[in-house]
Design goal:
The complex is a heterodimer.
Chain A (H helix, E strand, L loop, with lengths): L1 H14 L7 H30 L2 H6 L4 H26 L3 H31 L8 H30 L6 H26 L2
Chain B lengths: L2 H6 L8 H6 L4 H31 L6 H37 L7 H23 L27 H30 L12 H33 L14 H35 L6 H14 L15 H29 L8 H24 L1 H7 L3 H31 L5 H19 L1 H7 L13 H4 L2 H31 L30 E5 L6 E3 L4 E3 L3 E5 L10
Helix pairs in contact in B: 3-4, 3-5, 3-17, 4-5, 4-6, 4-7, 4-8, 4-13, 5-6, 6-7, 7-8, 7-9, 8-11, 8-13, 9-10, 10-11, 11-13, 11-14, 13-15, 14-17
The chains are: A mainly alpha, B mainly alpha.
The structure holds protoporphyrin IX containing FE and copper (II) ion (CU).
């Protein structure tokens, strides 16, 4: 596989029309475009319902802003370490790259752990996905986002382990991009469910 | 990479059977896998159609539940497991790298993965048919509340969950393919192949992939919500006492996807037709630029017409008028494309090969399909025609033309390239004529049934006095449909026979076509070009240049590489 890719890489220079972007990066952006619209679709539906459903405000009082703020910090810290990982990748200090990638993944898992505590508190208080408009969107969207955090953490972890064999700056960059994307989505979700 | 390189230029290590035929990363093998799987699913979808078609002629042949299930699976299979995998996964994979002079897709492993995800989705779909509690039967549009309300209706149960899961995997597979197509075409074109020199087929595949990417995402969101409704008891789309859901929200999410989806399969089909028609009428496309721009314009507009499917679903009448207008607007680029196609024929010296016959019939059928769409797009007349057999006839004139006529035109055209063998031409011509006749026999009478007010998705029309006198029309349609499917089954026998035992095609370019794929050997080896690389010198359709004295100029030529290429190591 790797050998074939290398051959193709060389050929690319020799026989393809030159393009300014490496194809890995382009493919990744196309994929991100799709992801943005998936989450956009469900968030847009939530906003539509919110506008026509007055009970929303009352239900949102029951979510826990403190826990969510801590979680926001956890995600942002992960973004910071992802940036640092990329920075050290560009100057080829691979040991540090691995360290910071590991920290990013750790942030991801921490986020998921905290989210679980939050869910169990809410379920304990009797708020289930079927308890009303607000709650179904709350569980639906934060659950979907949680899956993305999980995926992002696994990707980061994968790159970290993979790195031992192949030192790829692009992989670190793309994994970091995905992380930022998940982070940004959270910044939209946070006000929607916690700050109203 | 060893000594062998120096002498042969290319070395081929023996690949295991698994590597070569099952888990191959070669775009041509993957394309063929998609093609064959799509054909198998077409047999399934066609058989279901025949069964419920017989029931329409002789109510009582199936039970009510069977009827609903079969109609649902027929529609879903034909769109998602036949048209998309064949036109995108099959033709797209086989042709795009060859036409742009690349050696493979940008992400060969992802490509292999996308096929296997598709395969698993097909298996799950078939399993969902047999689970306890019954298969899903709420129509291919999966409208709630039929699809969302577990206790109350037949259908929302394990069968529905598996059906949605299969759909989700199918979408995932096509998305992976789309990412691959877009990236490949943007970054791996041969030297000299600028965007405005791409064969129209490649343009069409790219626009289709982009449309799919941007339209399917909201539906994925919707499908997640629907699953939560069924599994966790949420009520995004359900309306029960004291709960506020909105079934029309599903319709918006579905049709925001659904209309572009029709273009996702239409565009590759048009692409095939352009390649076929230019080759066999020895004429350049009448206006290449117009087709490219019209396609892009139609692609953009296709995101703005979705609510024309919901005119009678209680949407705001003002927005209904707005959507009528966009719908009429979108017919403009589409008719321009068909006019260009017609003008490309005109004055050409036409060779009536099987591929060309299929293309001509497809062109004619698209005109009927397009014209009959106008009364459905205008809100006033649609209120009468909505959910009648007029609609069924209209969309079969487009989707059948896409999924069957255009596809078969493509199969006849590229068969020698794909397999290095020929299909018998006389057989092909008979096949084309029979298909054309039986197709109209089964589809056209639908317009009359619709005018008479015959609703679609009805198990039987015999209970309605005003429809009893039309029962013979159903019989005519059923007989034609049976003959139509029989013709295709015979074709499939010939197709598979010719793959293994057809006459060998010695020439790499039997039709004297211009585009790059015809420079490669038939069938092209792994990595396509060996120790050569294609270099493009001109546009894709240089037929009959300088008046008539030069028949055609190939789009490019092969040059020998300085550095040899290895054909092994995956
Ligand atoms: C053998 C050829 C075919 C026959 C005999 C056939 C027949 C039919 C009939 C009679 C219906 C209407 C059922 C009803 O409303 O009660 C139907 C529905 C439908 N067909 Fe076909 N069809 C064929 C091929 C195709 C193809 C090639 C496609 C698409 C690529 C297709 C897509 C659909 C769809 C989407 C529906 C609507 C299903 C629904 O109402 O949920 N059909 N077909
Ligand atoms: Cu539409």
């Amino acid at each position: 596989m790797s050998e074939q890719l290398r051959v193709l890489d060389e050929l690319e220079k020799e026989e393809y029309e030159s393009v300014p972007v490496p194809f890995q990066k382009l493919g990744f952006w196309v994929f991100l475009g799709g992801e943005i619209i998936i989450l956009g679709g469900i968030v847009a539906s939530a906003i539509l319902f919110r506008l026509s459903y007055p009970g929303w405000f009352k239900s949102s009082e029951h979510t826990n802003v403190v826990i969510a703020s801590i979680n926001t910090m956890v995600l942002l810290t992960g973004s910071l370490t992802a940036v640092l990982a990329h920075k050290f990748a560009t100057i080829r200090q691979w040991g540090k790259v691995q360290l910071f990638l590991g920290l990013t993944a750790l942030c991801g898992f921490t986020f998921i752990g905290i989210k679980f505590i939050e869910y169990s508190r809410e379920i304990h208080h009797g708020f289930l996905p079927s308890s009303g408009i607000f709650w179904m969107f709350y569980y639906g969207i934060t659950g979907l986002h949680g899956l993305h955090v999980l995926a992002g953490s696994l990707i980061i972890l994968g790159v970290m382990l993979f790195l031992r064999k192949k030192k790829l700056v692009e992989a670190v960059e793309n994994a970091g991009l995905y992380w930022h994307f998940v982070d940004i989505v959270w910044l939209y979700i946070f006000p929607l469910f916690y700050l109203t | 990479m060893s000594e062998a390189v120096a002498s042969a230029g290319v070395i081929h290590h023996e690949e295991t059977f698994l590597r070569k035929y099952l888990f191959s990363t070669d775009h041509k093998t993957i394309g063929k896998q998609y093609l064959i799987t799509g054909i198998a699913m077409a047999i399934l979808g066609g058989t279901l159609a025949i069964l419920f078609r017989i029931n329409l002629a002789h109510p009582g042949f199936l039970t009510n539940e069977q009827y609903n299930t079969f109609v649902t699976y027929h529609g879903a299979i034909m769109f998602f497991w036949v048209a998309m995998p064949i036109l995108l996964g099959g033709f797209g994979n086989i042709l795009i790298p060859l036409m742009i002079g690349a050696r493979d897709m940008a992400f060969p492993t992802l490509n292999m993965f996308s096929y296997w995800v598709f395969f698993v989705s097909s298996v799950i779909l078939i399993i969902s048919f047999f689970v306890p509690g019954g298969a899903f039967s709420g129509g291919w549009t999966v409208y709630p509340p039929l699809s969302a309300d577990p206790g109350r209706y037949l259908g929302a149960n394990l069968g529905t969950v598996l059906f949605l899961l299969a759909l989700a995997l199918e979408f995932a597979s096509m998305l992976m393919g789309g990412v691959n197509f877009i990236t490949t075409v943007l970054t791996m074109r041969a030297k000299g192949l600028t965007l405005m020199r791409l064969p129209i087929f490649v343009w069409m595949e790219i626009v289709a992939s982009l449309l799919f990417l941007f339209s399917v995402a909201p539906l994925i969101a919707g499908a997640i919500m629907l699953l939560l409704d069924i599994i966790l008891g949420t009520h995004f789309f359900r309306v029960e006492a004291g709960k506020v859901g909105d079934p029309v929200l599903w319709q918006h999410l579905f049709w925001f996807f659904g209309h572009p989806e029709v273009y996702v399969i239409l565009f590759p089909a048009l692409g095939i037709l352009f390649e076929v028609i230019t080759t066999y009428s020895r004429r350049p496309v009448f206006s290449y630029k117009l087709v490219v721009y019209a396609t892009i314009a139609a692609g953009i507009l296709s995101f703005l017409v979705w609510a024309h499917h919901q005119f009678v679903a209680g949407i705001n009448p003002l927005s209904a008028i707005a959507f009528s207008i966009t719908t009429i607007l979108i017919s403009i680029p589409f008719s321009m494309t068909l006019v260009v196609m017609g003008l490309t024929f005109a004055g050409g010296s036409i060779r009536f090969t099987p591929a060309m016959l299929f293309a001509i019939f497809a062109f004619l059928m698209f005109i009927i399909g397009g014209l009959s769409g106008l009364p459905l797009g205008a809100v006033g007349s649609d209120i009468y025609f909505h959910d009648t057999y007029f609609v069924v006839a209209h969309f079969h004139y487009t989707v059948f033309t896409i999924a069957v006529l255009s596809t078969i035109a493509g199969i006849y055209h590229w068969f020698p390239k794909m397999f290095g063998r020929k299909i018998n031409e006389t057989f092909g011509k008979i096949h084309a004529w029979l298909t054309f006749i039986f197709y109209n026999g089964f589809a056209f009478p639908g317009f009359f049934l619709g005018l008479a007010g015959h609703p679609r998705r009805y198990y039987s029309a015999l209970e309605f006095g005003y429809l009893q006198k039309y029962q013979w029309v159903h019989e005519l349609m059923t007989v034609s449909a049976v003959l139509l499917l029989t013709t295709q089954v015979v074709f499939l026998f010939v197709f598979f026979y010719s793959i293994f035992a057809g006459a060998e095609e010695k020439s790499p370019n039997p039709w004297k076509s211009t585009t790059l794929e015809w420079l490669a050997p038939s069938p092209p080896p792994h990595l396509n070009w060996g120790s050569f690389a294609p270099v493009v010198e001109r546009g894709p359709y240089e037929y009959a240049k300088n008046g008539k004295d030069i028949d055609y100029l190939p789009q490019g030529k092969l040059v020998k590489l300085k550095q040899p290429v290895s054909g092994h190591e995956h």
